[in-house]
Specification:
It is found in: Nucleus. The protein has 638 residues and is an alpha/beta fold. It is built from 18 helices and 20 strands.
Length: 638
């Protein structure tokens, strides 16, 4: 199988940054996934900026930000008094003091303001539009092609909004609301492609659906970019739509359908990435009843629910299963080095950690005092204070699951920080229509009397360093109300599991043995060994530096992209004809290495389904013991 050599600017994989040495089972060629020479620069896999002069922590922060870079323009802040925040409850033991005047502009950028929500106004119709100057055509990797009959085909695109208008494509799919996927979209984008040279924007009959996405993603497009809903087809999750008929005209945007007539059908399935994210299952039925099935994964995090999903069950490796012709795979972490723990495990572990910390008695041997160095005097002084202000680093959307898991365990509220460009963050979360989240969101940054903690959703830079964390804590005068401030930095890029060094072990004979080792055991994760140990409990005595007793930042292996192990399970346990990587496809070395890995996965699939024996191919020599171990793998091993 050969990987696509398609070029085009797109999100790059962390694969390029792995430092592993593995051997392919077929060619037995050693592939070193490291920097080429000492003359090469270490570059960001997203924006290609040189990171050579940065520390590993600074490199991590830079890449994390780039992975879901937000293109919104920050509105300049005007120096003003931060208004008194209106409490959520009528009676409070703590009255929030009004911020003094004047306020240093440097401090102002850290201070939360009163949350003000405005109803979505009517979207103004433009009087004219300026045509885009973009000349780059949509690359083939972003175009899905379906045969109608031998000499005729139909095409749609996925996540291709930063290219020149296409002559024949009229249906553009958006997998989720992250800027590396919607990049290029604007209010005029749809007008340019629907109206072309026509300026009769008042004519309702000339509008048509051109953007296809989930309901949440569609709401976010309108909220942030003022995209008129008349241009958007909102797709309900797990609902099959006919979006094109090959024999007759159909309603604009298509309709829900279980028909089997010639045409193109699509079913969005939750991608477990960020709110509103989807994978698209396309099914085309040609005029001669030839069926073509393509699964586009966008960005996704494989979990057991996806592996056992009823709508994907038909493509499992059972003897009578249907074959997926193509799978466009999110290969962001396609390296054995990135075998981080399951997202659910990380969320549960972090939530349990805070629960256990808060349950502890204030004795010298307690968990709390061991890791935070609590003394008797400080506990008397802080008697009326809440224990924790928990800051969770987030992007414009994403990472909310971590905050929700903690909130459920501690029964505490969630506050949305509106510093920087976060003025629409509240409205953004409201588009999720999440019943639990809506019930715990508060406009009071101090929380209420029902809980001894509160969670703040903050920009990722606030949890990037202790200095930033302390600025946020001090400039908002949270020290008057909370004993400790803990920042959580969710990231998958810098995760280094304990067995990382085994990946480089020259004794490992090939990909297949390494694959079996990774798939046979799910990575463990606990707070005593993997979280609390990240910093010492020794207080900082350096003058002018933040007190480490008061502030803590923990990096968590919480990713919204699939790990190497999860990708392996997805490819091996589904009947797939061709896997097409969608990330890091410009680099020939990476393409070759990803091709070798995919071939290994396909070999494992053949072993599990008993469609290969050691004597089938002289180039494939597999130890019988290894074959037996691989055949023992199943979805129950996940």
């Amino acid at each position: 199988m050969k990987a696509s050599l398609i070029t085009g600017k797109k999100q790059r994989s962390i694969f390029e940054f792995s430092r592993t040495r593995i051997q392919a089972p077929v060619s037995r060629e050693i592939i070193e996934i490291t920097s080429d020479t000492e003359d090469d620069y270490v570059r960001c896999p997203i924006c290609e900026l040189s990171l050579s002069n940065l520390t590993i922590n600074d490199r991590t922060e830079h890449v994390d930000a780039c992975l879901v870079r937000v293109t919104f323009v920050e509105e300049p802040l005007k120096p003003q008094i931060s208004p008194t925040i209106k409490p959520d409850i009528k009676k409070r033991k703590i009255i929030r003091k009004e911020q003094p005047q004047p306020i240093d502009p440097e401090k102002l950028k850290y201070i939360n303001k009163e949350i003000v929500t405005k109803p979505q106004g009517e979207i103004a119709i433009p009087k004219a539009i300026t045509k885009s100057k973009t000349k780059r055509p949509i690359p083939p990797l972003k175009i899905m092609t379906f045969p109608i009959q031998e000499s005729q085909k139909y095409q749609v695109s996925v996540d291709a909004f930063c290219y020149a208008p296409h002559d024949t494509i009229s249906q553009y799919f958006l997998s989720h609301f992250h800027s590396d996927h919607y990049g290029g979209i604007s209010k005029k984008w749809a007008y340019e492609r629907v109206f072309k040279d026509d300026t009769d924007f008042e004519n309702e009959s000339k509008y048509r659906r051109i953007i296809y996405c989930s309901v949440i993603t569609g709401k976010l497009l309108t909220l942030h970019f003022s995209i008129d809903p008349k241009f958007i087809k909102h797709l309900e999750i797990e609902t099959r739509y006919q979006i094109k008929s090959y024999i007759t005209d159909i309603d604009d945007g298509g309709y829900e359908s279980e028909e089997q007539t010639p045409g193109l059908y699509v079913t969005p399935i939750s991608a477990n990435h960020c709110p509103g994210s989807t994978i698209f299952l396309f099914e085309s039925i040609g005029l001669e009843n030839k069926r073509t099935r393509i699964l586009h994964c966008g960005d996704f995090r494989v979990n057991y629910e996806i592996l056992s999903h009823p709508l994907l069950k038909q493509f499992s490796i059972d003897p009578n299963s249907i074959c997926l012709d193509k799978v466009y795979l999110d290969t962001t972490y396609m390296s054995p080095a990135y075998n981080f723990p399951k997202q659910e495990l990380v969320c549960e572990t972090v939530a349990t950690m805070f629960q256990d910390l808060m349950k502890e008695e204030t004795k010298s041997t307690s968990l709390f005092s061991t890791w935070f160095g609590i003394g008797t005097q400080s506990r008397i002084t802080d008697f009326w204070k809440k224990k924790f202000l928990i800051l969770v680093g987030t992007y414009v959307i994403g990472k909310e699951k971590l905050a929700i898991a903690i909130s459920k365990k501690l029964n505490c509220p969630i506050y949305i920080s509106n510093i920087g460009s976060r003025n629409k963050k509240w409205d953004t979360l409201k588009t999720y229509d999440d019943q639990y989240l809506d019930s715990v969101l508060t406009t009071n940054d101090l929380g209420d009397d029902s809980s001894d903690a509160i969670i703040h959703l903050v920009p990722m830079n606030i949890v990037s360093s202790t200095q930033e964390l302390s600025n946020y804590f001090n400039h908002n005068k949270y020290f008057e109300y909370f004993e400790r401030c803990v920042g959580l930095r969710p990231t998958g890029w810098s995760f280094s599991p304990g067995n990382h060094r085994e990946i480089k072990d020259p004794e490992i004979p090939n990909h297949l043995q390494e694959l079996e080792r990774i798939m046979s055991k799910s990575p463990s994760f606990d707070y005593l060994n993997n979280i609390l140990t990240q910093v010492t409990s020794t207080p900082s005595k350096t003058k002018g530096k933040p007190d480490k007793q008061l502030y803590r930042i923990y990096a968590l292996p919480y990713s919204e992209h699939s790990s190497f192990r999860e990708l392996a399970y997805f490819v091996i346990f589904f009947n797939i004809n061709r896997v097409i990587p969608t990330v890091n496809c410009e680099n020939e070395r990476s393409i070759r290495a990803m091709t070798d890995i995919i071939e290994t996965w396909e070999l494992a699939r053949r072993i599990i389904t008993n469609s290969i024996k050691p004597s089938d191919d002289d180039d494939v020599v597999v130890d019988m013991e290894l074959i037996e171990k691989i055949q023992q793998l199943s979805l129950n091993s996940f």
